[in-house]
Automatic annotation (TrEMBL):
Pfam families in alphabetical order: Con-6 (PF10346)
Descriptive protein name: Conidiation-specific protein 6
InterPro entries per record: Conidiation-specific_6, UPF0654_domain
Stretch forming the signal peptide: none
Gene: con-6_0
Length: 197
């Protein structure tokens, strides 16, 4: 076998060395050796102790997600938040607060997601149903505003075209294996009400 077949992921090696350094069951000699190896690895990588470059996009996203969470954690020091901003800035992320329509969209999406989550209690699901019912008209108007702000109004020029696409979406839901039976029942009812089934 060629030596390249057993190439080690530097990110994982660094993680193992850091774990050895922090492990209370590791001898001082082994900790010193792990620190030397980590320093050597980081020097080869051209990096510092806080951020070993991720070789996988998924790992990189998780690391950046951790730094984003740091910014919003009230128990995090200002120094740590400053460091997180520096890392995120270097990765091209700019910190911004979501606007009201984006926030509303996310809240409604969260309630909708809870309805299909098996880990959510029936009481919480009922609360989500009640909330969504109360905000149904507002949510529909809000959705139109969001689509309009995104320039979607240029592609869907009139109400008839919009309604046609809504009906097509419900028809697609009927044949989608990832759609729950409850959602399919709702789709059938909607299509019958609008004479499309």
């Amino acid at each position: 076998m060629a030596p390249t077949e057993h190439a080690k992921d530097p990110e994982r090696v660094a993680a193992g060395l850091k774990a050895s350094i922090k492990n209370p069951n590791v001898s001082p000699e082994a900790k010193a050796h792990a620190q030397q190896e980590l320093d050597k690895l980081l020097k080869e990588q051209g990096s510092h102790h806080h951020a070993v470059p991720s070789t996988s996009p998924q790992g990189s996203n998780r690391v950046l997600g951790g730094y984003k969470a740091t910014l919003h954690n009230e128990h995090t020091s200002e120094e740590a938040k400053k460091h997180a901003r520096e890392i995120l800035s270097a990765a091209g992320y700019t910190e911004r607060e979501p606007d009201e329509s984006e926030h509303t969209k996310r809240v409604l999406a969260g309630y909708k997601a809870s309805l299909n989550n098996p880990r959510v209690s029936e009481e919480a699901k009922q609360h989500a149903r009640d909330f969504l019912k109360q905000h149904e008209a507002y949510g529909e108007r809000q959705s139109r505003e969001i689509l309009s702000a995104a320039g979607y109004h240029e592609r869907v020029s009139d109400e008839a075209e919009h309604n046609k696409r809504v009906l097509a979406g419900y028809k697609a839901a009927l044949i989608n294996p990832n759609v729950s039976e409850e959602a399919k029942v709702h789709a059938r009812e909607y299509l019958k009400e609008h004479g499309a089934l």
